[in-house]
Structure formats: structure tokens, C-alpha cells
Amino acid sequence: MRNNIAIIAGIIVLFLVNWSISGKEQHIKEGKVVYLQLAPVDPRSLMQGDYMALRFVLANEVYRLLPTKSGRHGWRMNSLSAKDGRIIVSLNKNSVASFKRFENDEALASNEVLMRYRVRAGMLKFATNAFFFQEGHAGVYQRARYGQFRVDEKGELLLTSMHDDKFKKLEPDKTKVKK
Question: Is 115 a residue whose pLDDT tops 90?
Fold first, then answer.
């Protein structure tokens, strides 16, 4: 009996994992391309091992627009208990997003995209705050100025690649990869 339960549970887990992977692949294939400009981060945390810490100009801007409340000592702060939400961004000719408004009942214009944000530990985040790469490739990504995302119709974002200031995709030179 226990073996049957373990087998059934294993099959369910495999199904759910494959379903999730399939959904992400579809999201990457069909999602709208949106670039978010990188904001400076603490240089000590920019490259930490095999990942790059990320912050985005748009996240900083939206965070400043969140409702504020008074702290215990009378000072104003962005609400650390701010809720997750969605914003509307407009895309320029290079598909770089800029804040337009918080989600409302207005229809989206052809150059507008719905994007979901999350507030965690007093910071506003879009999808991720790190970009992971293969060991030894940190130098390739030091020129990163934009993160390329795929955004679905619900506003969910997936980070797909990093790009330089001319929107060239940054990736290691495959001819120089150690074997």
C-alpha cells in the first residue's frame, strides 16, 4: 500500500513539475519583450560568486510612488506593508519600459504593458533581484545596462537575458569556454 502511494505521489509531482516547465516555456515563447533599465547596486554585492545582484530604475520609481505612512517617530516612509500589485508601463521604440500608472480599469494602449510587482523586505521587485550565470563569466555581464523580460498577459515577468547599452545580448564567447 505504501509503495502505491509513493508511486502515485511521485507521478503527481513529476506531472506538476513538467506542467510548470511547459508553462514557463510558453511564457518565454509568447511573452512580450520588455527591457528594464538597471539601477546601480552596492558595488560589493554587484558580483557575488556566480550571480549578479539586480535593481531596476523602474522599481525605484514605482516604490517612491507607493502610499506612505508615518513611522513611530513621525517620519514618513514608504509602507513596508505595501501590497503586491500591478502597474501599466509604456514601451519606447526599443521596448524599454517606463512607468505610466498603477493598474486601473483603463484599457491598455498598443504601446502599454501590464506588469506585476512584489514588495518584499521593504523593496519593490520585478520577478527577480539576481541574474545567475556560469562560474567564471562575471566579466561578460559587467557591461549589463538592461534586463530583458518576457511579460505575459497577466503581467508576470520572466528574466531571459542581460543586454548592454546598445541592447546587444550579453553572453559568453562559446569559443573560449573551458572544457
Answer: yes
